[in-house]
């Protein structure tokens, strides 16, 4: 149930992606305004991570999860009633805070409840790409085949989240409140001492994979329109689903491989995938774009899995939510800042030129991580043995 709630929350964040084209047409939005709707979500999520991200370590997992789901329900209602950019931004802000408040508590609960070492981290890593894939495809399908495309999908999710609140109340409490410790929501990023080395090792790669995900989630429909000259939301959703779906599959396939090896494999496939996707956008080739996206998806799933598996076993249970919040802080900074910059550059430089710059950034980060890991040798094996 914890994994299902995680996937649903993350999936809901991808629901607006196929709808951006409809919003642009109805409300005469520019590309930069569409990416702003994505960016405010990530900023709000980061604010939640910095303030209440470790709250479940202090008051328990279940209260934080239930409160976050209530906020998510409010965001779905605002989405369903949105009639312009202003309400869309409000909905994204509320949704971002709800997701940020929940994901570290949910991820920590999965590790707390794991049946065997590493199992919870693998499930948590899988829930994110699976949720993104299902959310994008579900939204696109509803918008293409059902009436009121910009409200129906949110009303369905609202009902789902109501059901999940009832289910969340039955989750075993794995981090009961410590009465002798004051509750604090002071903004902070905490990496416990034993995990600092492993955390720094994974940062360049986490930035690369989440920057790539941010591009697809904010600009995927624009890529389909500009490079492939198609106007259906299904193509943009298919690209998101291809990236995240192959990411989820790679987590399953590589589940028995050591974290350092996964990072090496992931960095290599990420560079190859980005290069292939860029070639496809230059040549207006749907086959090359989807092939490159699938290859990059392996790097996306592998990178996030290895980051979680590397750092989470190194800390005590009461430190897990704080550490996971720090990992997500890096991830979502990388998720929103490059895409916001790209949105503004498109209006000045054009889509293809911006795509080249973005691809170069992601490839450079992944290459840096690959080279660093390749020369780290025995020192890089330390997190795996820990």
Characterize the largest beta sheet: strand count, sense, and whether it forms a barrel: none
**Percentage of residues assigned to helices:** over 70%
Q: Helix/strand/pairing class, anyone?
A: mainly alpha
Number of strands: 0
Structurally, the number of domains stands at 1
Secondary-structure element order, N to C: HHHHHHHHHHHHHHH
Overall pLDDT score: 81
CATH topology label: Growth Hormone, Chain: A
Second CATH tier, the architecture: Up-down Bundle
Keywords: Cell membrane, Membrane, Transmembrane, Transmembrane helix, Transport
GO cellular component, one term: plasma membrane
Membrane topology: Multi-pass membrane protein
Transmembrane segments: 38-56, 63-83, 89-111, 123-141, 153-171, 191-213, 233-254, 261-280, 286-308, 320-345, 357-375
In short, what is this structure?
InterPro entries: MFS, MFS_dom, MFS_trans_sf, MFS_Transporters. The protein is mostly helical.
């Amino acid at each position: 149930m914890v994994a299902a709630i995680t996937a649903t929350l993350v999936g809901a964040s991808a629901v607006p992606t196929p709808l951006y084209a409809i919003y642009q047409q109805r409300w005469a939005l520019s590309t930069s305004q569409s990416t702003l709707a994505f960016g405010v979500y990530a900023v709000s999520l980061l604010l939640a991570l910095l303030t209440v991200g470790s709250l479940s370590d202090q008051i328990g997992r279940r209260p934080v999860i239930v409160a976050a789901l209530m906020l998510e329900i409010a965001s779905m209602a605002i989405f369903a009633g949105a009639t312009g950019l202003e309400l869309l931004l409000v909905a994204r802000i509320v949704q971002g805070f709800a997701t940020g408040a929940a994901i570290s508590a949910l991820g920590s609960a999965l590790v707390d409840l794991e049946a065997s070492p590493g199992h919870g981290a693998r499930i948590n890593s899988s829930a994110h790409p699976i949720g993104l894939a299902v959310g994008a495809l579900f939204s696109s399908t509803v918008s293409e085949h059902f009436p009121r495309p910009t409200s129906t999908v949110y009303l369905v999710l609202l009902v789902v989240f109501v059901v999940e609140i009832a289910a969340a109340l039955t989750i075993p409490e794995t981090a009961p409140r410590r009465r002798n410790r004051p509750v604090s929501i002071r903004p902070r990023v905490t990496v416990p001492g034993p995990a600092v080395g492993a955390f720094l090792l994974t940062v360049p790669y986490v930035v690369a994979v989440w920057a790539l995900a941010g591009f697809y989630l904010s600009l995927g429909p624009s890529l389909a329109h500009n490079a492939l000259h198609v106007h259906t939301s299904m193509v943009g959703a298919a690209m998101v689903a291809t990236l995240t779906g192959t990411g989820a599959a790679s987590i399953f396939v590589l589940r028995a491989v050591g974290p350092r090896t996964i990072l090496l494999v992931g960095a290599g496939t990420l560079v190859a995938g980005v290069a292939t996707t860029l070639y496809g956008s230059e040549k207006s080739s749907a086959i090359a774009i989807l092939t490159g996206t699938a290859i990059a998806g392996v790097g996306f799933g592998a990178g996030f899995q290895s980051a979680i598996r590397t750092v989470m076993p190194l800390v005590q249970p009461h430190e897990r939510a704080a550490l996971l919040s720090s990992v997500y802080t890096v991830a979502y900074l990388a998720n929103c800042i490059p895409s916001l910059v790209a949105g503004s550059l498109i209006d000045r430089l054009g889509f293809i030129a911006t795509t080249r710059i973005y691809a170069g950034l992601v490839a450079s980060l992944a290459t840096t991580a690959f080279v660093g890991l390749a020369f780290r040798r025995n020192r890089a094996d330390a997190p795996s043995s820990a």
